[in-house]
Amino acid sequence: MKIYLFLIIIFLFSLSQIKAQNTKQYQFGSWYEITASTKISDKFGFFGSLTSWNYKLPAENSHLLLAIVGVKYQLNPKTSVGLGYAYGDIDSSFEENDTPNIKEHRILEQLVFNHKLNKIKLSQRFRLEQRFLEYETENLLKHRLRYRFKGKIPINNTLFVSIYDEIHFYLNQFDFQQNRIFGGLGVSLNKNMSAEFGYARHSFKTKSYDRLSVQLNLKFNSRKKQKQ
Predict the structure, then answer these.
(1) Can you tell which superkingdom this protein's organism belongs to (predicted)?
(2) Which of 84, 162, 188, 228 is the most exposed place for a label (fewest CB within 10 A)?
């Protein structure tokens, strides 16, 4: 009961932050992502992703290009921890100008809980990030906490509905930074590959972006088969 109360509070806070924002909107943009994970043993595995945000469709005026690699350890069938590194190139200006982009080196730690509610697959991810940001005139270190709640609702053996909400706080002053909401349709292409297509709303304190989201998910099993 406590965890559900916590989730409700987080969700309501997210909505209040979005409603309080400036309503100035920009053109519909895009959010493309490839995720990959592999198991090398019953306990250890690797994960990674490549993300591209763009202010305009289909892939014009880049907002962010981010690459993540990491290692994970399975504590039990439902819980895992992970450690990773990310490199990002960020253009937060929206305008197409010659202002240098922000370069980012990021260290991340995460805790993931997976569970089921009947046939619905639920996932909770807590992630801590140390963001080393290189601006044109200065370098900054910002600590960020992220919480993501995701649901996967099967329609049949091939199709599913995917939804999630992820809220971000800066820990330096425990200040709201952004929120991401996604809803869409997924398709299982085979046992190692799935794709998701939908709508994402990316909300900051003073502005929000509506984006077409396309995601390709790859899963591999590199564990050696035991001899019979």
Answers:
(1) Bacteria
(2) 228
Distance CA 112, CA 85 (A): 17
Is this prediction's pTM over 0.90? Answer: no
Mean pLDDT over all residues of the chain?
A: 88
Question: Alpha-carbon distance 32 to 227, whole Å?
Answer: 41
For tokens 């992970």, what's the residue?
A: 82
Residue 45, burial from CB neighbour count under 10 angstroms (0-12, 13-18, 19+): buried
Torsion of CA 72, 74, 75, 79, to 10 degrees: 90
> Would you kindly state where each structural domain of the chain is located, as residue ranges?
2-221
- Token representation of residue 181: 């909401």
- Please state, in angstroms and as integers, the Cα–Cα distance from residue 186 to each residue in 147, 155, 194, 195, 214, following that order: 22, 10, 7, 6, 10
Instruction: Give the integer Cα–Cα distance in Å for 44 and 81.
Output: 10
List, for residues 23-57, the tens digit of each pLDDT value: 444 578 999 999 999 999 999 999 999 999 999 99
Parallel/antiparallel/unpaired status of strands 208-221 and 29-39: parallel
Whether domain 2-221 has CATH 2.40.160: yes
Amino acid at 125: R
